[in-house]
Specification:
By secondary structure, the chain is mainly β. It has one domain: Immunoglobulins (Immunoglobulin-like, Sandwich). The protein contains 2 helices and 11 strands. The longest helix is centred in the first third of the chain and has 15 residues. It is elongated and about 50 Å long. The termini are far apart. Keywords: Signal.
Length: 172
């Protein structure tokens, strides 16, 4: 009986204790956070996706962006050595979070962005077939914003979300 009482007391204590929760701004590194214009992650043990925000079409990374600059979401995949070849069919969805953590509607939804073989990216970055260019608007809040891209391999039914960030200096 004392064990039940102790468990009940512990449960009550846990319910009344404030839980530290991460905000959307902190989770994505928005607002005053330092920008991270390049992210990588794995869909599975063989397939990695890289998302980068670059200046112009294929320029250098764009951690800080001034008014008038056009940016490109540069996407590529990489396959680990020893991976068994198979078909690959990727779709991409894109939306934005501004420096305050306010999200946009999806500007692309399940857009086909690569079809080929897994070995196309064997031990090298294979660019995706997505020409996504954008220019921040003066009405966007100043600070670090994110481009969120979801890449799904429809052959295996799995995907990832990446959120490279840039610091917008031309905003309000």
């Amino acid at each position: 009986m004392t064990m039940r009482f102790a468990l009940a007391a512990l449960a009550a204590l846990m319910l009344t204790t404030p839980v530290a929760s991460e905000t959307l701004v902190d989770a994505y590194g928005l607002g005053n956070h330092k920008p991270v214009p390049e992210e990588w992650t794995k869909i599975d043990e063989e397939l990695s996706i890289r998302a980068r925000i670059v200046k112009g079409k294929k320029g250098s990374l764009a951690p800080v962006v001034q008014a008038g600059q056009t940016l490109t979401l540069d996407l590529a995949f990489y396959v680990q050595p020893g991976a068994k070849d198979r078909p690959i069919r990727l779709t991409c969805s894109v939306f934005f979070y501004d420096a305050r953590g306010e999200g946009s509607d999806e500007v692309l939804t399940d857009e086909p962005c690569y079809e080929g073989r897994l070995h196309d990216g064997l031990e090298q970055f294979q660019p995706l077939d997505l020409n996504f260019r954008f220019k921040p608007r003066a009405s966007d809040p100043k600070g670090t914003s994110a481009v969120v891209v979801r890449v799904k391999d429809t052959v295996i039914g799995d995907g990832v979300a990446l959120a490279p960030t840039y610091n917008w200096q031309g905003g309000r």
